[in-house]
Amino acid sequence: MHPLSVQSVLVVGGGLAGSAAATFLARAGVQVDLVEASGRGHAIGSGITLQGNALRVLRDLGVWERVAARAWGFDTLGIRATDEAGTLLVEIPDNRTGGPDLPAAVGMQRLVLAAILHEAAEAAGAKLRFGAQVNGFEVGPDDVEVTFGDGARLRYDVVIGADGVRSATRRALGIDCEPQPTGMGIWRAVCARPASITRTDLYYGGPGYIAGYCPTGADSMYAYIVEDARERSGLSKPEQLEVMRGLAAGYHGPWDEVRALLTDPEAINYTRFDHHVIDGPWNRGRVVLIGDAAHVCPPTLAQGGAQALEDAAVLAELLTTEPVGEALWKRFTQRRLPRAKAVVDASVQLGRWMVDHDPDADVPGLMGRIAALVTTPA
User: Fold this and answer.
1) Full-prediction pTM beyond 0.90?
2) Domain span at 156
3) b/e per residue 83-104 (b: at least 16 CB within 10 A)
4) What is the C-alpha to C-alpha distance for residues 174 and 73, in angstroms, rounded to an integer?
């Protein structure tokens, strides 16, 4: 470790970005505390699709074998028609953005991934506290004094805000960059995996803009339908189930099996697509933001988790090899901002093309450019 590099770090938030950063740093010998407001065993969302560049970071974290044992990998993407048969139109070899020795993508349950990452952080030596929160902090020239919810005060060389899309750390820093709606909303459901579903297939059009599904393990999957953003908060869980089942009736082929499995109101979730990216340094002094706190993209490219993991890897590398100062923060911004912004902009553009029914949309070209970008390690 560099003699002037960071010795103690507080990570705020135990999602993908925070857990990965804690693991990398603790493994390098840094004293790491991680606080997560939710309890252990809580994860936002149901399933997650991780592209190859995310898997590359998970391999560097030393958890790829555990992930592979619990996830479902696939190397092709199917495009199906919205006809009565759900006809398979084309099977596309997916880009192996993590390299030839990793799948193009995997699906897995978010709770399973969270547990693997939390255990990896603790095994590396990080101290994790669940159901804990930060009440405030004072940024000094050489450290950050943090006040916790229980009244304790501790000093750290660096604080990493990985506390999600509605980041309290971002607001406390005075960074005015709140998520903006894209005009789309998404229905998600978790259910058992029919044997016929072994990868993601996408249906463009029909009752929604996109309908798709992703296996998340041998016995599980999640399905989703993207529509115009609507006010759905007043619906009861049974009403939500009926709305999603009604939309699902417009899709066939494997969707006929999926719809028959949509019986649990508690397995249905509806959220709106948001986006934002801090278009400038992600730090204010010795407090730095990563993951959804710094950038959020709609899931049209399935790159949100990958970009969060890349943030953690790059930041940990810099914090353990260079002295903390303006040169480090400038280098972090140079390595992460253009890449994350390109992914966010492309994800938003895909959605805008669909909303506008743009006849000149070059979806394959855009997806190819982003795949080429993220194939190169961050």
Assistant:
1) yes
2) 8-70+109-179+275-375
3) eeebeeeeeeebbbbbeeebbb
4) 41
Helix (H) or strand (E) holding 204: strand 201-204
Asked whether residue 301 is assigned to any structural domain, the reply reads yes
Tokens, residue 273: 């697509």
Read off the CATH number of the domain in which 148 is found.
3.50.50.60
- CA distances (Å), origin 129, targets 104, 252, 304: 34, 46, 25
Place of tokens 């030596």: 125
CB atoms inside a 10 Å sphere around CB 357: 9
Q: Is residue 313 part of a domain?
A: yes
Q: Is 6 helix (H, G, I), strand (E, B) or coil?
A: coil
Q: Please report the DSSP string for 75-93 in residue order.
A: SEEEEE-SSTT--EEEEEE
Q: What are phi and psi of 166, to 5 degrees?
A: -100, 40
Residue 173 lies in a domain: yes
List the pLDDT tens digit at each of the 378 positions of the chain.
445 479 999 999 999 999 999 999 999 999 999 999 988 877 666 799 999 999 999 999 999 999 999 999 999 999 999 999 999 999 999 999 999 999 999 999 999 999 999 999 999 999 999 999 999 999 999 999 999 999 999 999 999 999 999 999 999 999 988 899 999 999 999 999 999 999 999 999 999 999 999 999 999 999 999 999 998 889 999 999 999 999 999 999 999 999 999 999 999 999 999 999 999 999 999 999 999 999 999 999 999 999 999 999 999 999 999 999 999 999 999 999 999 999 999 999 999 999 898 999 998 899 999 999 999 999
| Beta strands across the sheet bearing 220-228 | 88-93, 76-80, 201-204, 210-217, 220-228, 180-191, 268-277, 295-296
Q: Rounded to an integer, what distance in angstroms lies between the CA atom of residue 120 and that of residue 54?
A: 16
Q: Where are the alpha helices (DSSP H) in the chain?
A: 16-27, 52-61, 64-70, 110-124, 168-172, 237-248, 254-261, 304-319, 326-356, 363-375
How far from 319 is each of 6, 11, 157, 205, CA to CA, in Å?
A: 6, 13, 10, 46
Sign of the four-CA dihedral 294, 295, 296, 299: negative
Q: Is residue 254 within 8 Å of 86, Cβ to Cβ?
A: yes
Domain count, the chain: 1
Name the strands in the sheet holding 134-139, side by side, starting at the edge strand that comes first in the sequence. Answer: 134-139, 144-148, 153-156
Q: Is residue 125 part of a domain?
A: yes
Pairing of strands 127-130, 268-277: unpaired
